Amino acid sequence: MRAKIPATVVTGFLGAGKTTLIRNMLQNANGKRIALIINEFGDLGVDGDILKGCGDETCTEDDVMELSNGCICCTVAEDFVPTLEKLLNRETPPDHIVIETSGLALPQPLVRAFQWPEISTRVTVDGVVTVVDGKAVSEGVFASNLEAVEAQRRADDNLDHETPLSELFEDQIACADMIVVNKIDLLGEDEATALTGKLSGEARKGVQVVKTSMGLLPIEVLLGQGASAETSMEHRHEVHHHHHHDDDDHDDHHDHEHEHGHDEFESFVVERGEIADPKAFAEQVADVIRQNGILRLKGFAAVEGKPMRLTLQAVGPRVDTYFDQPFGANPRQTRLVVIGQTGLDRARIEAALIA
CATH no. for residue 329? Predict the structure, then answer.
């Protein structure tokens, strides 16, 4: 039985920085074959140039494009599920699928589509990522260019034209597994802290809220959340339910952001000797993650008396461990990579993991 292919849904209003986030992700794919599905109306040519190797001439409405780094890009002309099936049926299916949707169509119906029998056994929603314009949201307006957002809504017959943006925003937050607060460089430190705290309070328990300025998010933070979102729909409430046929998410991008961005993330390696008890160690790791706000932690541990190395992967305090292969000629040591927002207390984390 082949493992399901993970899919990440990226949502957020026009101008929040979804496109920049995705462009950065494709450029730093590190050999991962990522398939990008853009649910949008009109001519992809508008946005085609941002996807390297995907020019105006080559991208037709229903086309699947191979990008130069092995990533794939396609638009949904008609139905979402057939497009997904087409990707899954390729000779070399993608390692990960990323779906970019408009913030004006709810993410929930799209996530529910993954329960369809044709695809439910083959693909899973790894996580819903909601990108927000930090500056706009802290000012209470949700999008920096409200006129553009409203024009996008009017241009699309499939969208509900009545619901206030504040409610659509609540739906994006309710469905999120990760909230990316973008344009953080436009906020003061206190404003940024207040905003991330407020969003954490509005989101479901355990949702990670991360800050960035230019949509620069390490690929291992963005992908690999393992949320299986389609199996937990009852917790991802829509605020309103009077939507008719809102499965066609559309997006129109005009994100022209300066590519300066300072690094909001850091990672470092902690090494230690053998551990005695894998279960106790996993609990220790979860504690360290909780106390230090670590986003991801992954690596291998050597367990006393076991020839196999223990693989350890954590998304927030959710730690998974399994024995994967013998150490062989490699030194028997424990090596963990810690990833988080800049400003982690490295000495404290190292001491706690070695304890």
Answer: 3.30.1220.10
